[in-house]
Each structure stands twice: as structure tokens, then as C-alpha cells.
Write the C-alpha cells for this entry.
Amino acid sequence: MSNHFIREVIVTTQSAEGQAHIAPMGVWEEDGLVTLAPFRPSRTLDNVLARSVAVVNACDDVRVFAGCLTGRHDWPLVAGTMAGTLRLQDAVSHQELELVRIDEDAQRPKLRCRVALEQAHRVFAGFNRARAAVLECAILASRLHMLPAEKIRNELAYLAIAIDKTAGPAEREAWGWLREKIDAHLAGTEGTPP
Ligand SMILES: Cc1cc2nc3c(=O)[nH]c(=O)nc-3n(C[C@H](O)[C@H](O)[C@H](O)COP(=O)(O)O)c2cc1C
């Protein structure tokens, strides 16, 4: 079990050729360094190795998380302060990271980064159950191939309660994108043994 406080964030990077990339990731702090742990193969990994910089965006728009998992990668970006960095235009806050060490691993190398700069752009609006439910649903949607259909249905039913009670239009839209993906998966698994 991990003992780290893991933040679910949006990591924005750029390829050597200057192509932007956006990916949800869980990051944590260890020995004073922010750690990114992308599974191979990963464009985020390639980009950080190419440029030695990355941006961690604290993002409260769950459409970005749900969108990246459902083929919607085009979210507004603006240049960061450091060369080669891009951040989400709508980030609540962001950190610009410099790669200082790589702890190699065949499946999931750890990219240890120094926080070179951090900026706050908006105030924290408070917790929201529907946003947390969309985030959980995004994790669920990224693990469909590993889970039995009954578990997926049970988790969805539980998460739907928070959506019904506390979602605004953005959270409902994000939930709808993920449901579409999950429902297509469940339709495809019907008739196959568990
Ligand atoms: C909340 C959340 C957290 C995630 N955390 C990670 C992570 O720590 N490492 C990882 O490789 N993928 C993570 N993923 C899945 C990646 O976003 C997804 O696989 C992405 O395509 C990464 O590959 P890329 O760098 O090639 O885009 C996460 C997804 C979600 C929704």
C-alpha cells in the first residue's frame, strides 16, 4: 500500500518537435521532489525525457480528466514561464517541474522533479461529490479490461448517487462521456463468461 498523498492532476508536456500533450496522472512528493510515474509506453514519459520539464496542473474541471480518457484531448493551453512548458489555461494552480533524477523501472519509471515555480490562478471552490465521482469513474474507465462486469455495474450505481445529487452541467457532461465508453464495453462483454 502506498503511504503517499497522491494528487490526481493533469500533466502537460511538449514533444521535442513542439507538439503538446495532456494526460491525467497521479503524482506525489517524496524527499522534496514531485514524482511522476508513467506506465510504459507513454508520450508523457517521452516528452519529459526529451525536454526535462513538465507541468502539473491542479484542475477542477473534471471534463479534462474524462475527456482525455475518451479521445477529447484538445483543452486550451497557454505558455508557462519556463522554456518548453505549457499549462492548462483553466488550471486552479500549476507547478513547473525540472527533471532531476530517473528511477528506472521496466513498467513504470519514476521521474523525480524539482518544483522550479508554482503559481495560483483561482481560489479553491470547495469539495464536490460529483467531481470526486467523475474522477473515480475515470479510474474505473481506465481499468475496464481488468474488472468483471458485475463490479463495474455496482461501482457505477454507487457513483451515480453523487452525480444525481450534486453535479452541475460540466460534471454531467463528463459523466456522460465516461458512461458512453463504459456502456460500450459492457455491451461488448455481454454473453461472454465472467
Ligand atoms: C485520475 C487518473 C490518474 C492516472 N494516473 C496515471 C499515472 O500515474 N500513470 C500513468 O501512466 N497513467 C495514469 N493514468 C492513465 C493515463 O492518463 C493514460 O493512460 C494516458 O494515456 C497516459 O499515457 P500518455 O502519457 O501516453 O498519454 C491516470 C488516469 C486517470 C484518469
Q: What stands out?
A: The mean pLDDT is 96. The first strand starts at residue 7 and ends at 14. The first helix runs from residue 43 to 51. The chain has two domains: 7-120, 129-189.
